[in-house]
TrEMBL record:
The keyword Ribosomal protein does not apply. Residues 1-24 form the signal peptide. The keyword Signal applies. Residues 41-111 form the Prolamin-like domain. The lineage of its organism: Eukaryota, Viridiplantae, Streptophyta, Embryophyta, Tracheophyta. InterPro entries: Prolamin-like (IPR008502). It comes from Eucalyptus globulus (Tasmanian blue gum). Keywords: Signal. It comes from the Eukaryota. This is Prolamin-like domain-containing protein.
Length: 120
């Protein structure tokens, strides 16, 4: 568990470092409090489910498993939306914004329905 809690933030940090090294022409300056908000979000996501969700939404990966749907719903819609916005702010994914937003919305609705169905 501790390994996953450390690995996902490390993966996210590595992505930001790569972007800063020139893989994106411009990254908008975050608003005050943005970093702490994102840090709180990261603590709610496991490495496995973060990768699975990212692959599904951004790289046409397989559907998110029911177990990861639980994690995604606990992650929360505000955190999910913030993560999507951060990734879309990069040049690599900006040209696919409509498709990514569609998949993001579909993934969220599907996962929320799965979790709510089990709660009944």
């Amino acid at each position: 568990m501790a390994r996953s809690a450390i690995a996902f933030p490390a993966l996210l940090l590595a992505c930001f470092v790569l972007l800063e090294l020139g893989f994106a022409e411009h990254i908008p300056e975050p608003a005050p409090g943005y970093d702490s908000s994102l840090e709180l979000c990261i603590k709610k996501m496991t490495e496995e489910c973060g990768i699975q969700t990212f692959q599904y939404i951004f790289h046409r990966g397989p559907e998110i498993t029911d177990a990861c749907c639980d994690v995604l719903v606990k992650f929360g819609h505000p955190c999910h939306s913030e993560f999507i916005e951060v990734v879309l702010s990069t040049d690599k994914f900006a040209s696919h914004e409509a498709e990514i937003l569609r998949k993001s919305t579909a993934a969220w609705k599907r996962c929320r329905a799965i979790v709510e169905k089990r709660a009944i």
